[in-house]
Amino acid sequence: MHPRPPAPPGPARRTLLRGLAGAGTLAALPALAGCSSTDPNTVTLTSNRANAAQRAAMQDIVGLFEERSGHSVEINTFDSTSFQESINNYLQGTPDDVIAWFAGYRTRFFAERGLISDVSAVWEELDGAFTDQVRDLCSGPDGKQYMIPDSTAPWAVFHRRSLFEENGYEAPTTRAEFVELCERMRRDGLEPIASGVREGWPAMGMFDHLNLRLNGPEFHLELLDGLHSWDSPEVRAVFGAWAELLPHHQADPLGRGINEAQTALVRREAGMMLCGMFLTHVFPEGEDLDDLDCFPFPEFDSEIGADVVEAPIDGFMASGTLRNPEAAHALLAHFGTREAEEVYTAVDPQALPLRLDADTSAFSPLEAKVNDMVVNAGALTQYMDRDSRPDFASIVMIPALQRFLSRPDDIADLTASIQRQKLSIFGQ
Amino acid sequence: MATPGTTAAPPSAPPARDRERPPRRGRTSLRHGRRDRISLALMLGVPAFLVIGLVWLPAAATVLLSFTRWDGIGGLDTIEWVGAQNYTDAFTLYPPFEPALRNNFVWLVFLFAVPTVLGMLFAVLLDRELRGGPLYQSVFYLPVVLSLALTGFIWQLIYSSDQGLLNAFLALVSDRPAVDWFGDPDINLYAVLVAAGWKHTGYIMLLYLAGLKAVDPSLREAAAIDGAGPVRTFTSVVFPALLPINVVVVVVTVIDALRAFDLVWIINRGRNGLELISALVTSNVIGEASRVGFGSALAVIMLAFSLVFIAIYVSTVLRGAQR
Asked: Which of A197, A410, A411, B93 gets the most CB atoms within 10 Å of its CB?
């Protein structure tokens, strides 16, 4: 025997290799691992509806389906924001059969890329259940449908009914009345319009509504589709109208989160707030929620009126490759039934059913009012970040709108900068 | 793009020996030789493979992607070459880019000027064995180990404009309107820097404490005998003896300033006065925007800045090694 040179002993080397294999596996894990079960009777479903009420509502309608069809459904719920941020990769991996998502540009985009599959066959059974508008919002550029819609959480100007009654305020219908009401509220020591845009996206609501009221829905959607110049008199007029309203907004909106702004409305510090139906989550059930009322964003141009509603539509789509198309389509068809939509929207406070034949007798006065706005809408839009390219909306528009809020006197320069970036992103 | 100088020797290279021993029995030495060779190949090859595969190849791919326009969907055929357009866009028409460069620079200068100096001061004070030293040490070091989400939450409680502690306190002592700590683009960077410094100070303090413990006490005694006061002792004797620690502190601080990201991301996604290159890369590449090409260009610019510092550091270390 003679001394050996120091060398790593065998087991250590094996451990190293095992560790290496482990590291390789870790690196290969996708951000969202779709659990693919091999049972042909199981349909897998990815849901981004993660609030407690939304989870319960999903369980209810999926339970209904399992009872009737004999298929079992596996629900994977993800936090809405992180799901939105990983969906591109997710759809290219091994996605679940059915995926909760948004209508409008967001569905069209995936349809164009072939990441989701055609569900026109399911739509044939739903003929007449939805308006043609909703159908268009669920269609791809080829005219086929790619989404089964189920609910919407529309936008309006919300306020507390009791506060309006105490002070004798009337819901304004025109620009002049709106500005006058704001001035009255300020004299009464209220912040007229609650505003919190630290997260960025809430700033889009005001732009959308002013653009819809001043330039109409066609121009608005074409603008967001990249067909018009952002450096145009129309867009500058929108920012101009917004600048006039700014003094009536809560000051310093850029440091305030949307939740803090909603709280100001709950506490009667602010008189009104332009917001989506999800505002209902912050009003405590009972007295407070019953006190919540709303009116449509007022008319700014009598030619155009005030009947366009921003109503982001949620629904379900089928992934590109279905292991069991029949079962997946059956689940999608179930999500489109009147019963499923009624059950879901009864549990989730922000959701209104989209079916024309949905039973509205159990609606609260607020829900009935908002529902009427949607039913009688001249057009439905989806919100800036669902009507436009996501890269343009988040990378260009959020910083631009935030810049406007901190320096509202520099509109010409701002619109020129947006237009330059738009050309670069849309590649036109 | 600089290529790594010598990441790995070829795996088949025989182990270098400074003394060639005549083989007593050829067979065993051959066996040893083979075993040595295999183990050496593994010891060099595996780390080299990991570094090349997980660091250099992705970095090279990022550089390539930075000359393309791609939304991350579809195969390689959907990647469109656009030359240097991403770079010209970044420098000419992307508004957040210039503030991001400026903010990263301010971040770096601030970290050196305040937390590093403060951390050194705390370390010197704690090194004097005062009563309750471990308690102070824990208090100053606590922010370093707090999770990021918690840090963000704590500072939101302090800075929130409507419900924050700081504004509530200011309202007691003066009747000026509430300060918009997070929303005012002229001051929010400094508000966040205070939070970042709060975390960084404890880290630096600990590094210097470790260094001070290693300084030979006889040096101080000699300085004291020569009549130097405590300040003079520190500046002329102790601080020069801390040179290796100082190098580490400089590197740690530069890296921290370049990769600063988490606080601003939690507060407002790195927008409106809190732009940082890392946040711009993240919001472009990851998430819905999926501007892989443009985001890669920003990442390459960040890499170029990092390489400047890395080159300075490596050359310093190598010079030290040659001495």
From this structure: A197
